[in-house]
Amino acid sequence: MSPRDRSGRTDLATRGTGGDGVPSEDIARAREAAGDGPAPAGPDDLPDLQSDLLPDPPPVPRVDGDAIDAADADFETGLDRWSDPAAETATRRGWRGIRRADGLVSSLRLLAELALDPLLTPGLRRALRAGEPIVVAVAVPGPAWVAPVDGVIAAASGGQARRLTQASRPRASAARDPDREAVDLLAEGRPVVAIAPDAAWLAPTLAAAADHALTVPPLDARLVTRAIAIWCGRRPRRAIAPEDLAGLDLLDVAGALRPGSSPGACAARLRRASRARLGPAQGGAAPPLAELAGYGPAHGWATALVSDIARVRRGEMRASLLEGAVLFGIPGTGKTTFARALAAEAGVPFVTTSVAEWFTGSSGHLDGVVKSAASFFDALGVAAKANGTAVGFLDELDALPNRSRLSDRGADWWLPVITFVLLRVEEVRRAGVVLLAATNDLSRVDAALLRPGRFDRQFEIGPPDADARLAILRVHLGDDLRDADLAPAIRLSEGATGAVLAGYVRAARRRAQGEGRALALGDLLAELTPADPRPIEQRRAVALHEAGHALVAHRLGQDVVEVTLRVGPRHEGVTVIRFRDPTPDRAALERRVLGLLAGRAADVRLGVGAHAGASADLSAATALLAAVHASFGLGGRLSARVEQAGALALMRADPPLADLVEADLRRLEAEAARRVWADRAAIRALAEALLAEPVQTGAEVAAIAAAHPPRVRVPAGRRPYPPGPAPDPADAARHPVPPVPGGTRLPPTA
Questions:
Q1: Least reliable range by pLDDT among 151-160, 535-544, 720-729
Q2: How far is it, in rounded angstroms, from Cα 88 to Cα 584?
Q3: Contacts made by residues 565-570, CB under 8 angstroms, sequence distance 24+
Q4: What is the DSSP letter of 694?
């Protein structure tokens, strides 16, 4: 056995027989029978690609792609001779595919040979076999390619080439100098071939000295179809399509090519493997993108992105032009489902992570967290190389702190992590990865992540509207309640997110299965409107309180989404109001405070009196008025002393500010009480409607308000007088009307 070379490999030069003792003349006869012409001299046994302790494989015959194409018509006749019983020595009877006598007993080796065949030109092969001092850098699609390509290069060079393989990102080491090692290797005067998934993983000196830079393309449908034809002895009846290989790497494809298999069986394995790879690890199968509802502009963007990904995979568009996006909004709106559906629709791998996983998947120390994050980005890069692109999803993006809000102590730990993530995000985006992220609070995300080139777009995913809720319910119901009218469920589910709707459907199914029957509409409605255990007096008090909020807000022009008596974790009932003005003035802010105080005013004027149930309303109103004076510059002072979130705390330490806020609260409480009393008929009508149906939509609130106009009491001094007969001009001249202070005139008396 010859000594090891510098790459850790051992060259073995055996002549006269194949690797398992098959004579070379038998190899030549088998190759000629296949239509490939005589095989080059030299052994061709399969190496053990998993161990560096075994010697290097000897050369294997070169697969000539043109000869394969030319021999297609002869597959059914010429390859029949391979099943001659006299030659059947290494496979089961009747299989017409490759045997050990052909020298390509490994599907891995076959795929690597086919991929390298057009890159290893005759001149380059001659230079390698002649031992010329050339340097060849080979970039492969992923780590799984390194060992098979190394075997092909060893065979192609006849054992002359020194090979350096790097299957993972190298770590810096003081004990090892890659550049010095590269110089020493070049000084030997022999061919040097460096193989790595990324040229940046090679020694800079070696990369700079490369005479030939070869990029092995990912497996495509044509190459895999040819590989199946060679492996099985005939082509599959249906050609392999690009979508059959979606999400598969070299090992997946090699695992589908098994000895004795028919072309159809190999193709079926590929399709099953693709579905398994593209299927999410958790959460079940992603729904089709067309069935998703309630995503607004994000849906149109995703549909266009799927078309762009298809163009990238056809070679019509650069992958680096694909965009990324951040999805933000309240929890439960289906942001993760959206990302999974996009990847499934595009037929590309979906890789997901979160900052929490970086901690749980590592020691939790700084270097462990960075390494865990690196594994996510490395996996995305490999998947994008193998499939043209990939979709990466970073959940709970706001768990990565915003640098502008870090304390000095926190900055010492977090800044290296944030900087690393920023650099790697930009790197994988340039490599063609579609990067998506989700957060409940976009304001907590570092601004550097939101710039073009990282996360180009931001889409708010809010609660679905009525049409979207209907579509979501239909998706989760499947074939159940296909002919049922879901209008009552849609009305009762106002404000519910996709996750909440899915929970209603699951609970309704459990109810029906528990009684041993099919799902009925009543089961769903029962989950949407569960029995309320509260006494009627308590429910009536809550109904008046919420009706006060809703009616006053509606009269003030605010968008009332819904009002409900449903009990939540922190409330006995709730009124949902949507504010559309992003830059309100003081009058608009005070209108919001009036809506907040209207519930307490209804308690006092129409109910049992003030109680502690309005504490959350008072807290929100106080904080808003404190911000008017201390943050927004809309009070008596122009200076902004604190941010809005800190205004309430400042008020506790600033008695003059507290006095200003208290005066505003008293003034606005009186105004809210006046409005509640004027609208008492509408408020009582809405409260009765809530007791009958615990969910009232904004449209139903508006209808009740229109049916009960407010009764406004005008003070006596401001009442308009009814029109009387026209005065006699002569009489007006005899009795002139004296002026009053302010320049107005009193009307003439009769």
A1: 720-729
A2: 86
A3: 565/532, 565/539, 565/690, 565/691, 565/694, 565/695, 566/694, 566/695, 567/532, 567/534, 570/616
A4: S
CA distances from 199 to 192, 210, 563 (A): 15, 11, 61
Nearest Cα residue to 36 out of 69, 73, 3: 69
User: Who contacts 260 (Cβ-Cβ below 8 Å, separation ≥6)?
Assistant: 91, 92, 95, 97
Q: Residue 107: left if φ>0, alpha if ψ -120 to 50, beta else—which one?
A: alpha
For 142, the token pair is: 């992923």
d(CA 426, CA 422): 6
pTM recorded for the entire structure: 0.61
* Exposure string over 625-637, b if 16+ CB within 10 A, otherwise e: bbbbbbbbebbee
Question: Residue 352: left (phi > 0), alpha (psi -120 to 50), or beta?
Answer: beta
Give per-residue pLDDT as tens, 311-355.
988 888 998 899 999 999 999 899 999 999 999 899 888 999 999
Write the pLDDT tens digit of every residue in 564-597: 888 877 778 889 898 888 899 999 999 999 999 9
Q: In whole angstroms, what is the distance from residue 75 CA to residue 79 CA?
A: 5
Q: What angle do CA 511, 512, 518 make, to 5 degrees?
A: 165
Report CA dihedral (604, 607, 610, 613) to the nearest 10 degrees: -130
Return the half-sphere exposure (C-beta side, CA atoms, 13 A cut-off) of residue 690: 32
Residues 6+ apart with CB under 8 A from 153: 116, 128, 136, 138, 161, 163, 193, 195
Take residue 708 and report the two structure tokens written for it. 């009960």
Rounded-to-integer distance, Cα 200 and Cα 430, Å = 14
Q: Measuring CA to CA, which residue among 105, 85, 81 is closest to residue 20?
A: 105
CB 605 within 8 A of CB 551: no
Q: State the DSSP code for 399.
A: G
- Cβ 41 vs Cβ 52: under 8 Å: no
User: What's the whole-number mean pLDDT along residues 284-293?
Assistant: 80
Beta bridge partners of 434: 391
Helix (H/G/I), strand (E/B), else coil: 705: helix
**Spatial separation of the C-alpha atoms in residues 534 and 689, rounded to whole Å:** 17
Residue type, 57: P
Instruction: List, for residues 614-624, the tens digit of each pLDDT value.
Output: 999 999 999 99
SS3 433: coil
Which residues, 6 or more positions from 477, have their beta carbon under 8 angstroms from its beta carbon? 505, 519
